[in-house]
Amino acid sequence: MKQVILTIITNINPDKSNDLEKLLFEIESDLKHNSILKFPAITLLHFACFVIISGQGSETYLIFENNFDDTIDNYLEQLTQEAGPGLHKIYSCCSDYNEINYDKTRLITYLRHAINYPNTYHIGNVGRSAVRIQQECQLREQVEDYIDIQLRIPGNKVSVLPLRNGIQNFARTNSLFSSIKSVGPRQTFIERFLPWLHVTIFLIGLIIFLPVLIPAGTLWVIVLRRVEKADMASKDLPNVNHLQNLVEREDKIAQNHIATITTVKPGWFRQITLRMVLWVANLLARTSNKGELSGIPSIHFAHWALIENGKRLLFFSNYDGSWSSYLDDFIDKASRGLTGIWSNTVGFPKTRFLILDGARNEAAFKAYARASQLETLVWYSAYPKLTVQIIDKDSLIRENLYTSLNGEATTEWLKLF
């Protein structure tokens, strides 16, 4: 199952910014039943959000984040089929959308031209569509109810193998799960193999060009240390009102959302370094297909994307747990990778050799993260109760429902409920 991450970035018409905010407020106030954009009807969608940012000039941008299944063509077709008139209202508030009357084909063309692809991205539950995730959750919940009923029957001595047989019969005769046996692999062999092949080719290339890379790398380190010593870390604290608005929107469900915008440090050296780090990070992220990124088990979808000709860096993440615990995971488990990326942006805590210090300065890093965080005006999750780990557990339940298991393996499988 192909999964895609992208943003749609458009210029807001200043004269219609108030109208746009009213539309977004109406959507956010009732994500499932509002009259503008009924997200649940878009079955290919995992997560989506709308944020507004000010450009470096006089522009103001509307950013529409999309994490979805299938191809871009099929997604845009379903998106406009289910929400075309509402999207027409939204983008009529943008200065580069000139359609007076709704036309599905023209709207798709407009959206396609506004697509911004990530430089680096991560998917936690690789190979599981939004529909599959919801179906597997429903299976687990109903089987849990079935088990509870069996345990409450007076005098019923429940043993492992008969209980599993009963669960199989329950699922087999339940019309909701009639297609349960048709579940395919999360990834094909080629999808699992290619990322490792790319990493291997990259490492071989490093070895082959080592005679050239050593002097070039030495020169790069010298220049890096010079610019790092001249860098100034931000001492600004997040605006109190802005911080309060962020906090009020968090911890409503099992998941949270973060969107940040940062300015890339000026000069060609930082531009090249950042693009190189993002490319390597994306290469390595493709090998992370078991629910974790650098040991962090709570990220559903995340990505970094350069905008405005590389002058600024966007970061979006849909994750489990609180903002503080998420940042703590970053600091404890992935500080070098994060420092390697964000050390190329203005105001990040002082670093050494690109990846050292930086995010390890907890107070400064958290202040930087809050100060750069955007207020998410609309945020939708297709499965708000589920964490990355629960989704993985549900998939294991389904994938092993009809496989041949011995007594010990059956006991371990039953522990998943």
Q: Which sequence of SSEs, written as H and E, runs from N to C?
A: EHEEHHEEHHHHHEHEEHHEEHEHH
Number of helical stretches of at least 4 residues: 14
Q: Which regions have little confidence, pLDDT < 50, spanning 5+ residues? A: none
Distance between the termini: 25 Å
Please give the oligomerization state of what you see: single chain
Mean pLDDT value = 93
Beta-sheet strand percentage? 15-25%
Secondary structure: number of strands:
11
DSSP helix fraction: 40-55%
Q: Which strand order spans the largest sheet, edge to edge or round the barrel?
A: 4-1-3-2-11
Instruction: Sum up the overall morphology in one term.
Output: globular
Report the sheet with the most strands, covering strand number, pairing sense and barrel closure. Answer: 5 strands, antiparallel
- Supply Rg: 24 Å
How does the helix and strand content classify structurally? alpha+beta
Short structural summary:
The chain is of the alpha+beta class. 47% of the residues lie in helices and 17% in strands.
Layout: helices, strands, pairs:
Layout: E1 3-11, H1 17-29, E2 45-54, E3 60-69, H2 72-91, H3 104-113, E4 115-116, E5 120-123, H4 130-152, H5 160-173, H6 189-208, H7 210-230, H8 240-248, E6 255-263, H9 268-285, E7 299-307, E8 312-320, H10 323-333, H11 335-342, E9 351-352, E10 356-357, H12 362-372, E11 378-381, H13 388-399, H14 407-414
Antiparallel strand pairs: 1-3, 1-4, 2-3, 2-11, 5-7, 6-8, 7-8, 9-10
Write up this protein:
The chain is α+β, with helices and mostly antiparallel strands. The protein has 14 helices and eleven strands. The strands form three sheets. It has a five-stranded antiparallel beta sheet. Helix 4 (130-152) crosses helix 13 (388-399) and helix 9 (268-285) packs antiparallel against helix 11. 32% of the residues are buried. The model has no long low-confidence stretch (mean pLDDT 93).
